[in-house]
User: Fold these one by one.
Assistant:
Number 1:
Amino acid sequence: MAASTDGRTQGKTVKSRPRWLRALGADSPPGELEIGGRAHALREVFKHDSWAATALYEGPGGRLRIVKLHRRAPLVFLPMRWVGRWTARNEIRLLERLGELDGIPALAGAVTHGGGPPLDNAVAREFLEGHPLGAREAVPDAFFPRLRALLDEMHARRAVYVDLHKRENIIVGEASQPCLIDFQISLLWPSWMPKGALFRIFAGSDDYHLMKHWSRCRPDQCGIDPEDFRSRIPWWIRAHRFVARPVRELRRRILVRVGVRSGKGRVETEAFAEHALRDITPRERAA
């Protein structure tokens, strides 16, 4: 299955990403891969951005696996394959440490193509049934307490998620249980490094974003009004936003200028938007 062709969004025509803005360059995820030595066929490409292509593959007996192919294409003239190898290894280490926890996908085995050697930029994991957490989805009472317990266990194992501000990384499982996906930028704290102030900052960021989602989806249970979070933002998150927001806005303007996005440059305006952002709205899901 190839990536999306050019399309229209918000009344404007947008183009597919140019090769220098795609993790695999001009290529798309292969139609067939071997995972754990067994052939799997491509079923759907979930997203293909600058850092990775994420796709659904089906194996023997209809078993589904997610394969993430990290960056291998150069960024114009800058070699980036080393970045893809590093982020793939990082994700594998995290899943090895956390994979037996309820709500964390297990690794599915080495990924090869055409019987060749294992792909050093690939990570395969088991598919988790469910849907991305909606903006104000009224999840069951146990959802956020279970997610907090999962994060606490991760922190106890010297792992911090880092990317919890993206609610599309939080999956509501088919039994309404919380699951986490996408450990590309998560951190596994070295055993020789004390869990000091820096670790507490990263862990505190996980906790802050958990409570932010909790207050928006279940304010009745959380006890904190979403508007109150303006006064609760930790100083390190304010500092990060001070730097990150101008960079994000510049990136959006560039994507609009090259015709990949429209309007204000939000990701959902792409011709091939991230799968989680193509999902139905919480209001439609509740209906």
Note: The chain has two domains: 19-127, 130-287.
Number 2:
Amino acid sequence: MHTLSQLEGNFVDVDGRYVIVVGRFNHHVVDSLVEGAVDSLVRHGVDAEHIDIVHVPGAWELPLAVKRALQAVRPDAVIALGAVIRGGTPHFEYVAGGCNAALGNLQLEFDTPIANGVLTVNSIEQAIERSGTKAGNKGAEAAMAAMEMVSLMRGFGDDVSQSGEQA
């Protein structure tokens, strides 16, 4: 059995097809996340023509659209962006938890990186801080994670299709 001594992704071998799936709810925050993600991808050499953006109503709808994008486009990575802001009811936990669990499951099911850039915050102020002000831009960070994972997956050497068969 061969073991890997050390393997990590980089930000050089990142060109490919990326799909950004965006929840429109809290669009005043999410629009900045999208700008940050696209800017990061393009700055690292991803052709803007290879970036698709899909809009859905909110974070709850992200997993279904991500699944369809994985099936139809077969991208190298997906970046899920949205903002779930805690309110006075348990709705926050259901939406955030369900979205996160489903995205994690899809990543494993399709053997394709899905960067989770869905903000789950306690206040609108926290959301604004994470969409390009004090705490950086989590959309840009999600794009960086997606690119690093694309590079890492390529580092395993063999081209494995989403069905798990050798290509």
Note: Confidence is low (pLDDT under 50) at residues 160-167.
Number 3:
Amino acid sequence: MFGIKYIKAQPNTYFLQYKKGKIIREGTGISFFYFAPVSSLVSIPMASMDLSFIFNEVTSDFQDLCIQGDVTYRISEPRKLAQLLNFSLTPDTKSYMSEDPEKLSKKIINQIQVLTRSLIQLLPLKKALQASEELVDSVNKGLVQSDIIRQLGVEILSVSILSIRPNPETSKALEADAREKLLLAADEAIYHRRNASVEQERAIRENELNTEIAVENKKCRIREAKIDADRAVQEKRLLMKQDDIKSKITLEEKNQELVCLCVKNRKKEADAQAYGLDAVMKVCRQMDPEMIQALANIRMDPAQLIASAFQNLAKNAEKIGNLNIAPELLSELITPRTAQNG
């Protein structure tokens, strides 16, 4: 109504609204009303897009190759692209006003073809057929460094080479060459297998002989080891006996030293005791015998004292006239001794 319209962008679509040559509104997934007679709408898809390519190139040895692959890209700077290509929508906003959106894919494919040609022309046919990984790396690096891709505001996500094929005639020639090489390799394999079997048989026989020789050598070493072991045991026994004899000799020598030392100690003890007795005897010779007798009687029991008294009486018997000893006194003197002996 009255030229006022409403538009709603998808989340992965970047919209720009121009009015009088100036951008008055832009963004991803926006929605707004606009006055159609004075507004221009630009719609740039931001989602990743897959693009297939196929083209023919010539190798360094002048052989045709058919290269097929895919490239995945996305528009990372929509304002740059809007300045170079026309992504304006028709008044009904259902299609583009120009064919520039289709030119974008052609520009990318042309850039990939230029980069592919620069590498394929340097390689011979056989190497080119096996250079898919090298070709992918070269194209990726070239697209990242490409000024055209950078100016368009496009980001290359991935490049893949699906096939590298020669023309049918060349392919048959390569197949024939490969077939002959395979047959030759098969013949060589048969020859090597037969030769290997003969070598293995000879090696087996040599191994058997070497095994027998090794077994005999081992047996000889075992016998020598047993002899050496017996000899070592005998030597150890002899050493043990010698050590035992030495220890016994040492023990006897120690015993002899101990006996000599004991004899010396006992002699010294006897000399000391003799010296002590001699000193006591010297003192006793100078003392009065009665004093000595009195000292000896100090620790005697009554019976011994009475016996000593009778002894003194016996010595002085000529001085005693009459002495009467009652039987009761003798029984009293004898009874304690008999009880003590009992």
Note: The beta strands are 4-8, 13-19, 22-28, 31-35, 39-45, 49-58, 64-75, 154-166.
